[in-house]
Amino acid sequence: MLVAVLVALCGGVGAARMLSGLVRVVPPQDLTAIVNVGDDMELHGLHISPDLDTVTYTLAGMDNRETGWGVAGESWAVMDELHRLGGEDWFRLGDRDLATHLYRTGRLRAGATLSAVTAELSERRGVPVRLLPATDDALRTRVTLAEASELGPAGSEVGFQDYFVRLRHDVAVSRVRFDGAEGARPAPGVMESLEEATRIVVCPSNPVVSIGPLLAVPGLQAVLEARRADVVAVSPIIAGAALKGPADRLLAELGTESSVVGIARLYAPWVGTLVVDDADAALARRVEAEGVRCVVTGTVMSSPERAAALARVVLDA
Amino acid sequence: MLVAVLVALCGGVGAARMLSGLVRVVPPQDLTAIVNVGDDMELHGLHISPDLDTVTYTLAGMDNRETGWGVAGESWAVMDELHRLGGEDWFRLGDRDLATHLYRTGRLRAGATLSAVTAELSERRGVPVRLLPATDDALRTRVTLAEASELGPAGSEVGFQDYFVRLRHDVAVSRVRFDGAEGARPAPGVMESLEEATRIVVCPSNPVVSIGPLLAVPGLQAVLEARRADVVAVSPIIAGAALKGPADRLLAELGTESSVVGIARLYAPWVGTLVVDDADAALARRVEAEGVRCVVTGTVMSSPERAAALARVVLDA
After folding, report:
1. Is there a contact between B220 and B194 (Cβ–Cβ < 8 Å)?
2. What is the mean pLDDT of chain A?
3. Residues 6 or more apart whose Cβ sits within 8 Å of residue A190
4. pLDDT at residue number A179
5. How many helices (H) and strands (E) does chain A have?
6. Average of per-residue pLDDT across A275-285
C-alpha cells in the first residue's frame, strides 16, 4: 500500500506537522523533504534558515509547539543581553537555537554548502528524514508593501522576515519576488528525488512564500509538471482561511481567490490531486472543474495521530 | 601634577588592569585607550575583538577576574548546545559575551566601522574612557610555528587565536607577522590623540603580539618616536618572566632577551622611560645603558589599589 520513495515539498510549521504524520506511516529513510530557503536571512552575521530549522526541530522532537518556531524549553540569555545593549532583537533567537546558527554559519564560511550543513545538522539532531534545501544558492523572498509601514512608504521592498516577523505580516503586499532565483540551481538530490519519487506531497504551506520559492528554482516546476499525476497537495486554506500566517491575505492581495478553488487554480499546472478539509466538501466539484482531482478529509493536524491519519489519506489518494 | 590628556597603548588583561588603575587617578574622560586588534578573529561568522572586549568588560566592572577573559557570572547555554552539535567549541564564548559579538557583527555588516561600534558598545556598557581600535582595517596577527602541532607540520602559519587559545601557546614560534598591516590606516582619533597627549603610557602588554600590531599600523611608530620623551612603558616582564601569557617565550624565540633589558632594547627607539618592578632593581643600570630612563616600583597589579599606585608612579615618571 505505502509508497517506496516519497518526496515532500515543505515550508515551515505546516510542513513540519505533515512530515511528523508521514514519518508515522512510511519508513523515515524513504522520505525526502525539499525545504524552502526563501525565508533565509543573515542577521548579526549569522545565516538563519527558519524553515529548515522548524522542520529539523520538529522531526527531532525538540520543537516549541506553542510558538511554532524555535526550541522547546529554550533559554534567552543572549537575547536578554542583546536587548540590554540596544541591539536588534526583533527576531528572537534562543540560546539553543543560536547554537544551530553558529554551527551553520561557521561551516558555510568554511566553504560547506547549505545542503552539506543541513545533512550534518539533521544527522546530529537524530532526524531520520533526508532534508534538502531547495537550492544551495542565495534565493531570497522579497516583498513589496502596498502600504506605508515603519519600514518605509508604500511601495517599499523589504526582506521576507521584515514583513513576516518585524511587521507581523500586518501590512498589505503588492508583489512578491524571489531575488536570485534565475541563477539558483536545485541542490544536489532535488531533481533526482523528484524524478524518482513514487509520490510527491505538497505540504499545507503558504503557496506564495513557501511553495512559491521552490517553484522559482529553475527546473523544479518543469519536473513537477512532468510528474503531475503523482503530485498530491494538501490545501493550506480551510474554509477560506489559513490556519496560521498570512497565506489567505497574500493570495487575495496577489489576485488569487483565498479558497481551495483558488489553490486548485494556482496549482493545477503541476498538481494532480488536491486534498481539502471536510469544511470545504461543498467546493469539491469546483476544485475538480479546475482539472484537479479532489479528496476530502480532515486536514487539521492538531495531534500527531491526526497528522498520521492525513498522511495515510495523502498516500492513498 | 596629573596630566591633562593621557593615551594608553593596550593589549588585553595587563592593559585592562593598568587602565583600571589610571581611571582612579585621572578623570576617565581625559583618557584614551588605543587597543590592539591583531587578535581579532572571525568565528561562526562573528567578528570577535578579544582585547577591546577585555578592556571594555574590565572598565565596566563586569570582567571575570579568575579567567582574565569574558564576563563574570557568565552562562554557557549556547556553547553547551554547540558542543552537543559537535561544533567548534575551542574558543569559549559565553552567552552574555556572545551578545557583544552579535551586536558588533550586525553593526559591521550594516557598514559601521569598528571604531563606531566600539564607541557604541563602550557607551552602552557605561565605560567613561575613550576606546579606539588601533585601526578599523583588517590587521591580523599570524604566527609561524617552529614545531609540529595538531594544526600542521613545523613551519605552518596559523591565526593568532589558533596559537594562543587552541594550542594554549604551548608550541615554539619562529615568526610573527601582521597580515594587512601595510594597508591599515590608524582609526579616527588615533594619530591626533598621540600627537596631543601630554603623556603616552605603554601598558604591560605582550610586546610582540599586543604592542607589535599597534606599531605595525603605518604612521604609529613614527609619531611615537617624535613623542619619545613623553612615552612611559611599564615592563610586561618581571624577573625574566611574564605574569601571564607567552611574552617571555615569544621574546626569546624571536631573539630578544626576556628581561627588562630586552624590553628596553626593543622599545628604545620610541620609549623614553621604562617602569620596572622592584624585583628588577638590579637591572636598572643596564636598562639606562640602552638609552632609556628607568623607574623602579611595584608593578604587580594584584588589586585596583596597587594598580592605582602604579598609575601614579607612571604619571609622575
Report:
1. yes
2. 96
3. A34, A132, A134, A135, A217, A220
4. 98
5. 13, 14
6. 98
Q: What would the mean pLDDT of A3-28 be, rounded to a whole number?
A: 93
CB pairs under 8 A between A and B: 103
Q: Do B209 and B22 meet the contact criterion of CB atoms below 8 Å apart?
A: no
Picking from B163, B230, B151, the residue whose alpha carbon sits closest to that of residue B193 is B230
pLDDT given for residue A4 in this prediction: 62
Q: What is the pLDDT of residue B143?
A: 97
pTM of the model: 0.94
Minimum-distance CB partner of B99 among A43, A87, A103? A87
CB contact under 8 Å between A99 and B82, yes or no, is yes
* Distance of alpha carbon A131 from the chain centroid: 12
Count Cβ neighbours within 10 Å for each residue of B260-275 and write b for 16 or more, e otherwise.
Answer: bbbbbbbbeebbbbbb
First to last CA, chain B: 11
* Dihedral sign for Cα atoms in the order B290, B210, B183, B179: positive
Residue B235 gets the label, from left (phi > 0), alpha (psi -120 to 50) or beta, of beta
Q: How far apart are CA B78 and CA B70, in angstroms?
A: 14
Residue B168, helix vs strand vs coil: coil
How far off is chain A from B66, nearest CA to CA, in Å?
21
Q: What pLDDT sits at residue A2?
A: 45
State which amino acid sits at residue A192. E
Which stretches of chain B drop beneath a pLDDT of 50? Answer: 1-3
- Whole-number pLDDT of residue B67: 82
Burial class (CB in 10 A: 0-12, 13-18, 19+), B300: middle
